[in-house]
Write a structure and sequence with these properties.
Blueprint lengths: L7 E3 H14 L5 E7 L2 E8 L3 H11 L9 E5 L9 H9 L3 E5 L8 E4 L10 E2 L26
Parallel strand pairs: 1-3, 1-7, 4-5
Antiparallel strand pairs: 2-3, 2-4, 5-6
The structure holds zinc ion.
Zinc ion binds next to loops.
Length: 150
């Protein structure tokens, strides 16, 4: 993942993240970010608890063609500082990590780097085909937290 330059996030993708975070309340929304030509345009949805994220991640890396640039999750409590678990997760999933909190508007989110320091993530107006979401892939990966028995 090193060396992948990200110039920003598509406005429609950020709106999707904020909307998904809002509708997940009071639970957390979590996903992984993928970029197309340096612009974050895709969200891969993960199970929404901090503890389930790591096991989901391990399985995700076994999928082909998954190039992660970062992650996103919401904090229903509205404080946007990364937790200890978040920081561990950040170091494994790229360099751009969004945490969103209530009221989930365009100013209620922060982007961190892999070390947990705030960083700028420009919001870009990107043209999508047709209704604006054809290029977006919201893969609903069905992760199971329990060990699958033989
Ligand atoms: Zn968190």
């Amino acid at each position: 993942m090193k060396g992948r330059k990200v110039s920003g996030i598509a406005r429609g993708t950020l709106d999707f993240i904020l909307e998904a975070s809002r509708s997940s309340m009071p639970h957390e929304f979590a996903g992984l970010l993928q970029a197309d030509k340096g612009v974050i345009t895709e969200v891969l949805i993960l199970p929404g608890t901090e503890s389930s994220r790591m096991s989901a991640l391990v399985r995700l890396y076994m999928l082909p063609n998954v190039h992660l640039v970062g992650s996103v999750h919401s904090h229903p409590s509205s404080h946007l500082r990364p937790s200890r678990e978040d920081l561990i997760f950040f170091t494994r999933t790229g360099d751009y990590h969004i945490i969103a909190g209530p009221p989930f508007d365009r100013t209620s989110w922060v982007c961190y780097d892999a070390m947990g320091a705030r960083r700028d993530l420009p919001v870009l107006d990107v043209k999508f085909k047709d209704d604006g979401f054809d290029d977006l892939e919201f893969d609903d990966v069905d992760f199971d937290d329990k060990e699958a028995g033989p």
